[in-house]
Design goal:
Number of helices of chain A: 8
Keywords (chains A, B, C, D): Hydrolase, One-carbon metabolism, Purine biosynthesis
Pathway (chains A, B, C, D): Purine metabolism; IMP biosynthesis via de novo pathway; formate from 10-formyl-5,6,7,8-tetrahydrofolate: step 1/1
Pfam family, one (chains A, B, C, D): ACT
Distance between the termini of chain A: 17 Å
Strand order of the largest sheet of chain A: 7-6-5-8-9-10-11
Number of strands of chain A: 13
Oligomer: homotetramer
Family (chains A, B, C, D): Belongs to the PurU family.
CATH topology of the largest domain in chain A: Rossmann fold
Strand content of chain A: 25-35%
Catalytic activity (chains A, B, C, D): (6R)-10-formyltetrahydrofolate + H2O = (6S)-5,6,7,8-tetrahydrofolate + formate + H(+)
Amino acid sequence: MIILIQCNDKVGLVAAISGVLARQQLNIVSLREHVDKAENRFFLRVEVEQPADPLRIEEQLRQVLPSDAVIIVNPLPEKKVVVMVTKEYHCLADMLVRHYFKTLQASIQAVIGNYNTLEDVCHRFDIPFHHISHEAIAKEAFEQQISTLIQQYAPDYIVLAKFMRILSPAFVAAFPGRIINIHHSFLPAFAGANPYRQAFERGVKLIGATAHFVTNDLDEGPIIAQQIIPVSHSLTASDMMRAGKEIETAVLAKALRLVFDDRVFVYNNKTVVFE
Amino acid sequence: MIILIQCNDKVGLVAAISGVLARQQLNIVSLREHVDKAENRFFLRVEVEQPADPLRIEEQLRQVLPSDAVIIVNPLPEKKVVVMVTKEYHCLADMLVRHYFKTLQASIQAVIGNYNTLEDVCHRFDIPFHHISHEAIAKEAFEQQISTLIQQYAPDYIVLAKFMRILSPAFVAAFPGRIINIHHSFLPAFAGANPYRQAFERGVKLIGATAHFVTNDLDEGPIIAQQIIPVSHSLTASDMMRAGKEIETAVLAKALRLVFDDRVFVYNNKTVVFE
Amino acid sequence: MIILIQCNDKVGLVAAISGVLARQQLNIVSLREHVDKAENRFFLRVEVEQPADPLRIEEQLRQVLPSDAVIIVNPLPEKKVVVMVTKEYHCLADMLVRHYFKTLQASIQAVIGNYNTLEDVCHRFDIPFHHISHEAIAKEAFEQQISTLIQQYAPDYIVLAKFMRILSPAFVAAFPGRIINIHHSFLPAFAGANPYRQAFERGVKLIGATAHFVTNDLDEGPIIAQQIIPVSHSLTASDMMRAGKEIETAVLAKALRLVFDDRVFVYNNKTVVFE
Amino acid sequence: MIILIQCNDKVGLVAAISGVLARQQLNIVSLREHVDKAENRFFLRVEVEQPADPLRIEEQLRQVLPSDAVIIVNPLPEKKVVVMVTKEYHCLADMLVRHYFKTLQASIQAVIGNYNTLEDVCHRFDIPFHHISHEAIAKEAFEQQISTLIQQYAPDYIVLAKFMRILSPAFVAAFPGRIINIHHSFLPAFAGANPYRQAFERGVKLIGATAHFVTNDLDEGPIIAQQIIPVSHSLTASDMMRAGKEIETAVLAKALRLVFDDRVFVYNNKTVVFE
């Protein structure tokens, strides 16, 4: 059983929490705690060996913790997700394969594409695909269609697996803290469009990818995971793009594992990740 | 203030420990806990914000913990070390520089070399150097001289910074858990002599280095840190040796930082490292 | 157009080769050359900008090169492969996805499994799957069935994508230099069975994977690619296995890309890889 | 013997160059060639086994190459350098140690500091240290003093080993292509002052360092080498700074090795690095 707690910091929090668990004869297998001193914020993730009644544990924790505490006892083991894509397959296919073999720790409800390029691969894995074109339609209407569709699936998370349209603040605000994006650069370097072209022209020796929660500042949300690979002068811009796709796939996979495994806290445009 | 605890696992340990701290109004800044289920062993490292009387804390912890508990409250911030070398400079020089600029978190008492190659660089940093040759002397007598000398300095740790003689079980037993070695391979690959030659002949694409505590099984003690670098066919065996020295220096520096910062527990030929 | 040449080294080889190309007005875009001094062996890979008659170029090269030279002009852009699997999906699925989206640089002719676990995923991608069980049959007959089947497809390469049976020398000898294996450890460490269990018990801080050509010495063929990831005490043996699968997938994908892109030479149990 | 050639690309360059070498019975041990198609620019580095008369080789190469060709035959094996520092020791100390043990491939003529913090460590290694304060003096006069001093030493390269003052275009123009800087971020992310504070506030999961040639655009010159290390929420801004110093030291060391080993070409704000 996993318990997640986030609240303002004060003396005695660990004692209070572990006291509750000890009185229930629950053995702590793994405990991670972090205090952000600048924000005076306390984060804790604990795994206990035995199952227990989550409602009862939560009630008892609430009695000993500050009233602002966010307490999650026994989070859902399998998250519901909707995936949004454009034309690039690599991140989506990786998710579909893991989903099919039951190692994604999430259930893909549907895939929404603004092109139909990836419809066939979704159908091969029996996943509903919805084609909602952004062409010949106002942006507001386009997003409204997507939003309505997403709400029908009631997902825990929306994964932008190379969705190449910028979402409006209104759309983002409708799903606060629930949209995960893979950005094709080592943010904050090369924010914006065509990062591989930028990287090639700048002559960098590393390229990277960043998985982050989406907020209203484009390419500026809390970072979950980042990775890089070395590149050299011998790579063209399109070689860099190919290499970048490998790292994008790996970084998104890692970020989703961390999020779906309840290892990520978000606070003030930053994450606390208990790997 | 740092507190380290290792004991057999049972329900309620975190509650007992954090209860002691809370009653003293000590705020936990960082807490790392690990349970080795196979060994039923509990490891905990906690940093508290405020200073406190270490003897009193230790006494109170002892009252609530099992009798087998190893409790260290407020470990020495600066460890005393003796360094043993042969001819290669890279690890020693890195330690001397950090020592001189007070970032080693340790005080180098002396350097012992079985050659005098590195005497001059030690003197440039005002560190005593003792030349004890292994030639024209029985191994037992050679080690006895070293042992006697080390004991005069009463070091917390002995660092083998490319000391290329194999130490006898008797020597190792005289300093249990206190000898740290840097091995020039990614153990357990290429144990034994001349690992770069072995790596070259095997045509590997990565070479590495391993920092570990020394036990009686040569190249077999608990591993503290390991790192690798990619290599290619274009490197000769001596190129690999040069590249390997960079990684040896980095790995030993990392391992020493972890040990001197009281982040490493040892149990049953393994380490628990709270990075 | 790509040209690959391997022969004994002597003065003037580059001049002879580039002279042939210059006389045909062919522009060299990229040239990689390596001489293994210990073996006196010359390796060269050159990309030229313009297309040309491969037979004519090969004939002219043969006139200026030693008689032992292995010359490949304009290698097949798409290799034919047969994949062999047991139950683990990760490497196969990665290959199937790349094949489906035409980024594998190879054509998967068929998949052979000694269990039928992965039959369904192959069918989803319209790839023939053959189930040949190793049970209730002598090893010789088992391998004979596989061998006969493979020969029908006439593949350029056979990829062991987590095929967990040891192949006999006779089988290996039937496909010299054409079998590629992914081994679940950083060879030569942890050769043999159950490397993650071994790695866990040894308490290593890195785990890895190795893609190599198969020879008669088990886990001992020429290494094409290797990679590692850091691990810590907090991973169980099964966590290490999960993490290891990510790195196995990545390493096999990289090795296949290098081989299919004609960047790998083999000589004397080593590879020369022009990345 | 090493030969470096840079010129506009055309058909037949490799044949022309290798023909010259073959006629002198010089055996090519390693040849690296790159063509920047966008710029139509040809780069070549070749190592030959035997010594030869460099003037004669250069003359013969000049006869077969375009008139714009930059030809360097047998570059100086040991470069002369002047190092500029402020207060941080890590990059300078690494260079001093390598210099002392004759593995820097360069001769440190002198160190110039705008503080005298690092004077003592220079004297311990018998390297002249010049203290030129930037205080109570106009920037122009400050740079003039430095420039005059540098010219006395006639260095091949000037290494900014954590020199924390911005140099004027006039200063940079006086040493074109000869100033190497280590920047404490993964450029282009976090250009400008205090990158670790920026990285901490942005909550990145990787920090890096960049070694580059200095041009008039601050933090914008051709990149020689870059590296990163993973970081987590548990690091404070000062922890990041400490970790960053390790990577800065490693990246500068690598970049200097590449430059001093004549493996770096510069063209149009980019580098071609034949590692």
